[in-house]
Amino acid sequence: MIAAPVPANEDVRLQALRELLILDTPPEERFDRITRFAMSEFEMPMASVTLVDRDRQWAKSSFGFEAAETPRDLSFCGHAILERQTLVVTDALKDPRFRENPQVIGPPWVRFYAGAVLRMPYGLALGALCLMDRRPRQIDRVDLAILCSLRDLVVEELVRREEAIS
Question: What are the residues facing 118 on neighbouring strands?
Answer without folding.
Answer: 127
